[in-house]
Amino acid sequence: MLGFLKEPVVVTAKINVNLVALTVMGLISRLWGLCYPRAVVFDEVYYGQFVSLYMKRIFFVDDSGPPFGHMLLALGGYLGGFDGNFLWNRIGAEYSMNVPVWSLRLLPALAGALCVPLAYQILVELHFSHCAALGAALLILLENSLITQSRFMLLESILIFFILLAVLSYLKFYNLQKHSAFSRSWWFWLLLTGVACSCAVGVKYMALFTYMLLLAIAGLHFWHMIGDQNLSNVSLLCHFLARGLALIIIPMGMYISFFYVHLALLYRSGPHDQIMTSAFQASLEGGLARITQGQPLEVAYGSQITLRNVLGKPMQCWLHSHTNTYPIRYENGRGSSHQQQVTCYPFKDVNNWWIVKDPGMQQLVVSNPPRPVRHGHIVQLVHGITTRYLNTHDVAAPLSPHSQEVSCYIDYNISMPAQNLWRVEIVNRESDTDVWKTILSEVRFVHVNTSAVLKASGVIGASLPEWGYRQLEVVGEKLSKGYHQSMVWNVEEHRYGKSQEQKEREVELHSPTQMDISKNLSFMAKFTELQWKILTLKNEDTEHKYSSSAVDWITMDTNIAYWLHPTSGAQIHLLGNVATWASANAAAVVYLCLSLWYLLRRRRKLYDISEDAWQLWVSAGGVCGGGWAVNYLPFFLMEKTLFLYHYLPALTFQILLIPVVLQHLSDHLCRSVLLKSMFSALMVAWFSSVYFVYCTFSPVTYGQPALSPTELKALRWKDTWNILIRKQ
């Protein structure tokens, strides 16, 4: 029974020494001195705020992209025991002892280190020599800008890692296609392609371009499979479904799951709540939820409500009135109705309360049982404190003369009768008999007499002058001018009115709401709203000292000072390896020129290289050149503040193109022994220059050792570089 113990257990394994050595060198280059400097470096001031909010479970919205990258940074903080207590308000601020600097910077550094062996494997899977693959990996290893970006709490190294992993996984899957279709390894690499794509997109939306490139390549490969007569229709269908599942369905599911985890972690109310709808805010612990918990769900005649404008940007505001009237004449000489002002007020106030009244009855309390208001019902809105009715008429609004003024009606005993009937239209209704619901219903109020819609025009325009206390303008807008979210309102706070007497009602309006019905949003509703906010909510783009244009990146005419020591000349810059950047540009030009030459020659039935060599050249260009193009060219169409680090994903693909071009030149143009020897000597000299530049700029890549002013001046190879030199 125990006979197997008589023989030794032998394990045989193949170890790629190149791969192991590259991985170790990558880890050393990215992890060495990772805690230095122990101060906030450039965009760590931005991402650190989100890490702290994750630690405290406080909800936030980042309009720069989806949450997966932020969660990975927060994971580093969690593993390091970070409690979130640090004020991220200044670049260069010293970290307190409770901030686990090494742990926070670890995951970006690991991702940057693993990009080195990934580059090696991608070239191998593209069927280039191990020498070319080794060259690609070493170029990534010695690229100063990639080292700098991966050593801090930033997202670009994580993004590049997942992009390269997706490319490598697809190439491995494709190379298994002919001999091992539907095998375990085939499924593994196909599924890993989809997973890596979803992770990349989950870090930054820029990864969508690489994802689309891989989908296009996969589509082209499948198109070639359709022409393969050896594959049956059933087999083709299985291939199509497998790719659809792995490259579309699973990435979409994973992308949604990132938001599920994000929302599950961030369940507490925070400073970013105000840009979300009332329903979303009420689903968070604290904040609005404390006010709205237990409110009546259905709005009834006699309900006391506050109405929040749905648009909510640039600031949230509520329908509001006060005893002051519009001036008889405005500054431009136009006259007004001199009625009571109605505005949109960006703060909670007792004057935000309104009472929903049945036009056919005088009572301002809820009957028993309550009579709910439905879509299409006619109502009057009575201001709770002043008891005047919401009104509009054919008088020009103060700031929007083409729209109608909205007021609370004062009877001056002149020929201007009250026009205070409003039709309730539930915009997000499921049927025409829907009941008006607290928080959930998005409602439009259409004026019965003039068909004007109640609109918070001040939300997207200017505020009223001093006579209007700088509050936001509310107007009646004609329906013919189209739909806008500023025309839509929702009930935020709600109670069933019980007091018929005005003095008792004022006391009631000042008291908190406490009733029995509550309603929470589903995850998909919250996901849809949050996704829409991320895509549409954009901060105002402002010029930054280190912002640049996409044209500047090619020749590296710009740099970014990430950190400066408060006393010495030690500093860290995002600055690339000049030799590598110039070589990458040259490789792209050579590839383009040779490709055009080959195409013209092939059109004339002249074949300079074999068909296998041509297919290798085209496939490598599609991956490396295509990767560069899709990650670079879209920036010319973007209206946003751009920085040099935006170019790093494109640069990575362009670097991979260098050994592709060099091996092609060596194999097909250097045909004599002498030419090959000369080419090899040039390669040694060229790579030595790459290493020399890396060493020269390593003090501003790692921030140490500190350099003297003279040494710093010597590093200013271009007049456009902003190397910081202290005055002596």
TrEMBL record:
The protein's location, in the record's own words, is: Endoplasmic reticulum membrane
Q: Does the keyword Transmembrane apply?
A: yes
Coiled coil regions, renumbered to chain: none
Keyword set, alphabetical order = Endoplasmic reticulum, Glycosyltransferase, Membrane, Repeat, Transferase, Transmembrane, Transmembrane helix
In terms of Pfam families, this protein maps to:
MIR, PMT, PMT_4TMC
Q: What membrane topology was assigned to this protein in its record?
A: Multi-pass membrane protein
Q: Which family does it belong to?
A: Belongs to the glycosyltransferase 39 family.
Q: Would you tell me the protein name for this molecule? A: Protein O-mannosyl-transferase 1
Q: Which organism encodes this protein?
A: Platysteira castanea
UniProt gene name? Pomt1
